[in-house]
Sequence to fold (454 residues):
Amino acid sequence: MQAFQKARISRDARYDGKFFVAVKTTKIYCRPICPAPSPKEQNVVYYDTAIAAQEAGFRPCRRCRPESAPQSAAWIGTQAVLRKAVRKIHAGELNSQDLNSFCEPLGISERYLRKLFQHYIGTSPRKYGNHVRLMFAKQLLHQTKLPITDIAFSAGFNSIRRFNDAFKKTIKLTPSEIRNYAPCEQSGIQLKLNYQGNYNWQLMQNFLKQREIPEIETVSDNSYQRSFELIDSAQVIEGQFTATHNEKMGEFDLNIEINDINYLMLAVSKIRQVLDIDANMELIESHLAQDILLKPLLAKGLRLPACWDTFEAGVKAILGQQVSVKAAYGHTQNLIQKLSRKHSHEYHFFPTPQLVADADLSFLKMPNSRKETLKAFAQWHLDSNGHSLDSILDIKGIGPWTLEYIKLRSGIDSDAFPEKDLGIIKAVKKYKLTNPEQWSPWRSYATLQLWNTL
Fold:
């Protein structure tokens, strides 16, 4: 608590998102960087999470806006299943299904999920999901000009009445009372995505630039822009975004266009995953640094650049088998040019599983066996909806390297480790690294660190 006290008094930005300050006299909770006059210590209660402060009866500050704090989730620690569950909730997946259906892809029971949430977060999955919806809606109210009705549905509320009741009960204000029409000359929806700790944009930008496919994306000195699709049953949601890095403020300025506002929460969650905005770099780097042989190789703030989804990551992995990075992305570019649909703006969309499964791939200059593997992977994705990723090992032409690469490049697994990768083999031998298991559960980050040394 002494560290929290010092951080609060000094408004130390390094602690933003790591804890929240509740003031007993005002019944308000704040970020440690709040510009309001510091309360007396005897009037302060510290909470590890925003929802803990909310559950204790405090409402979010209107000046520092706790909903905008970095979502590093330090309180989760190394709990991989809990991290996946939290990520799914932030993507809105609990908004429209029961808890049993939500737990099924995680491979755990409702009871076990409730136990994890109660132990690490101090509340139930449902209450946490409601908190996430409220905070996302509050962010939209503060930062966008979206109509309140659109905000309600984009945050996962199925009626305006429930939306208003939730705000009055939890935040003690109506949505209209916290509405803020910030001046904006851009088209689209503008949001700020804060991160915590070091963010090495230069290395992220280098990685993305080397793999840039102009048909779907543009990588500039300080921004990343691309088109995207979200497929829900037979419905296809289209959009594009630009995320501009603002190092001084520790955030990305996001401009997003989407043709169905009900999927905004999911799209923003995917963008956070693509840019690895929510990684707890202090925890990850301190863990990897315990290996005295790996420690000198670590670059500060190295985040994981992710593809839009597991299908895109899988296509790139298969097209990249036994060829250089340049050749792999040449194949991917060719695939997009031949099969993809054009966006209303300057971009194409990445081909869907259905388009790849139905396509004649004779235009790809590669062995027929690899083309068959690609089509089989697309069909697997259609049949499974991308769940149970480990089952792709049953597809001829897909081995452990491809599986681990997909896990790493889709951003869904912090512990992916393609140990048979030539770059990894070379780095392990060169630096005499003896115990990769020691890097778990952050071997995805260790992999990227080793690639970065080559």
